[in-house]
Amino acid sequence: MGSDATASVTVESINPKVLKCEYAVRGEIVTHAQRLQQQLQTNPGSLPFDEIIYCNIGNPQSLGQQPITFFREVLALSDHPALLEKPETSVLFSSDSIARAKQILSSIPGKATGAYSHSQGIKGLRDAIAEGIAARDGFPANADDIFLTDGASPGVHNMMQLLLRSESDGILCPIPQYPLYSASIALHGGTLVPYYLDEATGWGLEISEVKKQLEDARSKGITVRALVVINPGNPTGQVLAEENQRQIVEFCKNEGLVLLADEVYQENIYVDDKKFNSFKKIARSMGYGEEDLPLVSYQSISKGYYGECGKRGGYMEVTGFSSSVREQIYKVASVNLCSNISGQILASLVMNPPKPGDASYESYVAERDGILKSLARRAKALEDALNSLEGVTCNKAEGAMYLFPQVRLPQKAIEAAKAAKKAPDAFYALSLLESTGVVVVPGSGFGQVPGTYHFRCTILPQEDKIPAIISRLTAFHEAFLNQYRD
Amino acid sequence: MSFIKTPAVPIESINPKVKDCEYAVRGEILNYALRLQEELEKNPGSRPFDEIIYSNLGNPHALGQKPITFFRQVLALCEYPALLDTDDTHKFFSSDAISRAKKIRSTLTGKSTGAYSHSKGAKGLREMIADGIALRDGYPANPEDIFLTDGASAAVHMIMQLLIRSENDGILCPIPQYPLYSAAITLHGGTLVPYYLSEAKGWGLEVFELKGNLDLARENGISVKAIVVINPGNPTGQVLSESNQQEIVELCRKEGLVLLADEVYQDNVYVKDKNFISFKRIIKSVGYSDDEISLVSFQSISKGYYGECGKRGGYMELCGFSEDVKDQIYKVASVNLCSNTSGQILASLIMNPPKPGEESHKLFFAEKEAILSSLGRRAKALEDAFNSMEGVSCQKAEGAMYLFPLIKLPNKAIEAAKKVNMVPDAFYALRLLDATGLVLVPGSGFGQAPGTWHVRTTILPDESKIPAIVSRLKAFHESFMKEFQD
């Protein structure tokens, strides 16, 4: 092609950061699963299972979870406001969804849900979110600190792009972590500085470990810019204790680190002895204000009990940055104009759901609690099942949507993996897929202590499928161990 | 927001590429306009105009254009499927909207708009888009080569990130250009290689000008990877002739350049003697094979007659890329999981609108024609107005949504601008805003031949407002020219 050496686009000629970045959640194992799924469609009965069950990704509505009725009523009315002019509408829609849609539309200039909004998101919706944050935390929030984004992920990218100048800039990340962080750091040319969560203590975060890693990185000439904390954790599911959170805040303040608080699972907590505290609340309750700590708090509409992954909504609340830096953040947001309006609307609903006395309140609570209680039951059932397997230990999922069991693989299995040129946990996960149709993600995709092997499985398949999944998993694991017994 | 004395993140420490990038469309002049608007709201009558008219941004619905009824009916039904099966459904929704919504839902993961879709976008929707492309061009399209994104902008970023390794990699861009390109190239660390459109020739693209700049860049050690062509043009509005397009394609093939075809205004052509022809069709009709030329075609739901800016939808169609490079593109797309499902659905609708004989076709066609003919009239009215002004010449808007008049600013005005540290066209635009309430973007935000000054206005204000806008514009210009008469 062409006469010039710079001719065709090849894997050798593209941006090496793109080559370097990995995202296992939709990686090789998923591609293989999709091929198997095709095979099942063209050749039913050709595999030892009837269907592929995708436990690789936190995608509740793909596995039968229903959206919250009130939220979808409001969305439909906002999308097609002509509905609001018809008398029959009050028969089809709850009165409070009609009122909320009208309120939302009036906050949009020209009631035009098809127009680009302010680059941070519609002001009226940010006001509603700020109120929701204040009600949650007991400390005020400012609509001007909120940037609505297409999911939380673009907000993460924005901060990585802002903070990373070169590979001499580092970001502290938990190991194991949700691989958006490692991927984004790679894409933006920085260095991931790992700090290990402690499996033996329920994936606890030890501040001494974080400090050690920070100092180690600094001694190697890395300027560490920020600390990522995922609370509740992904893939680990732990909910941080308040004391722990205070230590983290203090640490970031003293070391001049930006605290990047991934709080997308704030409404997924399954244990009575823990609750979600936002890092903003913790910092403010310690008396720390804007001048003390740069903090970016991420929330998403994809998780919780709402699970609106496909609508792509979320926000970052940005506090503790100078106005000149905030202008830069705004400027980058303006290049892509704004996030999608449906996602913005859902974010405002998630942070301001129906209240007692509202027409939809009771049905909303029933739907919400039904989903959350079911998630807690499924988390427990799968955790118990995994713990009953030989050589497998699984920490409790206090929150989030995943289990991350440790699997002690026999030496023979590790060797077989090497021969197949696969990471041992990827080898295990692939064998699991081929025997059972269940798709999990190898622990190597999230990071783990070297020499240990894990996989991440979601707790999301419908409750009535859980027993079958458990029995297939159990049968597979027994057979696998027998095959590779030392 | 409190003043932060010694910020943990000083402005000097952020990524310089972020600081360097500019996006005038939502830049300084807009900030000033927003302040004026607040002032008007607090103090009506304080200004020589009643309202701010935002003619800075291609945002049709914000200025009163209505969405296409059929599209919003389908969207509402997809968001709240309970609507599909009520006794009253047919009172609200046409039967073809109902059947389209059912068809679309069946293509979605979990039959829900709330689930993450495939990272390229739902397969069934990509098939619908591929069908639409094939019908438009007369050549088949492969759904596997289509990537649905949150607006075309997100796809542009993906390609810039893919192609640019360092500032030694260059991208040819038209001057003037839509400043997403200059911003994206800066953010991704590359070099913009300009090629000047010829104002005297209706903003025509001369291939020898292209080649000249390409050769010059290469002599300076820049590896030029791609060329951006915006057709119809933004801000210039020209529609390329077929022979021009063939020359461009031939140049790309010969020089090994990736052709980045921004075709988001393909449904905005106002002149009878020109037609939109996609670059894909040109390549196929000449008979080039996939290994001879690489093409990325961008389309968006934000423009045309649909104007669904806020829904954030669009796609890129890849042609002539190897499987392993496409795998890398897929991998990057997977990190952010997928684009929003409303945008995906709208993209499938615009590429597959109601056909003659279908229940909604009559209304659809009437709405579409009304919008497009009105745009054509507004383009002409504003073009004539500019051409009647002293020292102003304005090329015809053959397509797109903008006019980009050339203004011969008197020396005194240029000096006055320099005194207040402003670029002369920004000075003019600011004075214009102050006098008329009309927000335009200075030509310096798009690039222009040195020593020339332009402003970009949209043609989008409601038709009823155009006469008042024209008279205010003329009055302002007359008085400005008088004030700064040499």
Task: Tell me what you see in this structure.
The complex is a heterodimer of chains A (486) and B (486). Chain A has 486 residues and is α/β, with parallel strands linked by helices. Helix content of chain A is 42%, strand content 12%. In chain A, helix 11 links the parallel strand 6 and strand 7. In chain A, helix 2 runs parallel beside helix 16, helix 3 packs across helix 5 (95-106) and helix 15 crosses helix 16. The model of chain A is unreliable at 1-7 (pLDDT under 50). Chain B is built from 17 helices and 14 strands. At the A-B interface, helix 1, helix 3, helix 7, helix 8 and helix 12 of A face helix 1, helix 3, helix 7, helix 8 and strand 5 of B.
Coarse shape of chain A? globular
* Largest β sheet strand count, sense and barrel closure of chain B: 7 strands, mixed
**Number of folding domains of chain B?**
2
Q: Structural class of the helix and strand makeup of chain B?
A: alpha/beta
How far the N terminus sits from the C terminus of chain B, by CA atoms, comes to: 47 Å
**Secondary structural class of chain A:** alpha/beta
What is the quaternary state of this protein?
heterodimer
CATH fold naming of the largest domain in chain B: Aspartate Aminotransferase, domain 2
Based on the structure given, which CATH architecture of the largest domain in chain B is correct?
Answer: 3-Layer(aba) Sandwich
* Mean pLDDT over the residues of chain A: 95
Instruction: Name the poorly predicted regions of chain B.
Output: none
Mean pLDDT of chain B: 95
- DSSP helix fraction of chain B: 40-55%
Ranges of chain A where pLDDT stays below 50 over 5 or more residues in a row are 1-7
Strand content of chain B is 5-15%
Question: How many strands of chain A?
Answer: 14
Strand order of the largest sheet of chain B: 2-8-7-6-5-3-4
Radius of gyration of chain B: 23 Å
